[in-house]
Amino acid sequence: MLPKSHLSVSQINTYIRCPLQYKYRYIDGLILPPKSALTKGKSVHKGVEYNYSQKIESHEDVKLSEVQEVVAAEFETLAPETEFEKDEDPGKVKDETISLATLYHKEVAPTVQPVAVEQKVEVEFENTPYSLLGYIDVLDDQGYIRDTKTASKSPSENEINKSLQLTAYAMAHRTLYGKEEAGVKLDYLVQTKTPKVVTLEGKRTQKDIERFLKTMGIVAHAIDNQIFYPNENNYLCGPEKCGYWEICHREY
Ligand code: SF4
What we know:
47% of the residues lie in helices and 18% in strands. It has helices spanning 9-17, 19-27, 36-58, 64-78, 90-107, 159-162, 164-177, 206-224, 245-251; strands spanning 6-7, 114-124, 131-140, 144-151, 183-190, 196-202. α4 (64-78) runs antiparallel to α5 (90-107). The protein has a domain at 115-220: Alpha-Beta Complex (Lambda Exonuclease, Chain A). With 252 residues, it is of the alpha/beta class. Strands 1, 2, 3, 4, 5 and 6 form a 6-stranded mixed beta sheet that branches. Residues 18, 20-21, 230-232, 234, 236-237, 242, 244-245, 248 line the site of iron/sulfur cluster.
């Protein structure tokens, strides 16, 4: 009954947040246009990936202007499909996106030597109809798994410990390389009046991985058994925040 033969952490997170939202998105295939925050994040990611992909060999960052061009082009590709808010100016969002990518390139990129970028990882589990599929953003030469986030406010210290995505990547890293990673890092680019970088660092234990696997197993079992119900007690539920609000309140 799984929609695909694999689960991603993003699917698991969606199910945990709201099982009915999961059904609309992944079973019924109702894909909503992305909000500007997602387009901003994806565009910045593209710039980071562009630079690091060549830096694995060259050990040099590309020119800032080159990254800015890549980010601007990605934003323009995604903008026509993006649902901007009524009071949002796409041009201003594009400028903000480029300024975040610039900040990353000046403050974070010079401190990172990548050894792998956007590495596809698929972990198979015995006796189950699913695998876990994901892409590790960056693995650096110090053995850290890194991910980049864009946000409108500073993250709390605990964000790094709560991230299921990083736990899944730590598990995948151990499967791929046969050893523990040095740690996990999240580079937050925060869109405050003066944009800033907040880097959070954490660790993953075997216990964290076991907890994640249990959660994944329960979510997969629930999806398999078509257990879908609305969870209105989540911060992304509301007529303005959830694109499925109408169908959810009409059908359920
Ligand atoms: S409106 Fe709320 S309960 Fe309904 S699908 Fe969206 S998040 Fe879930």
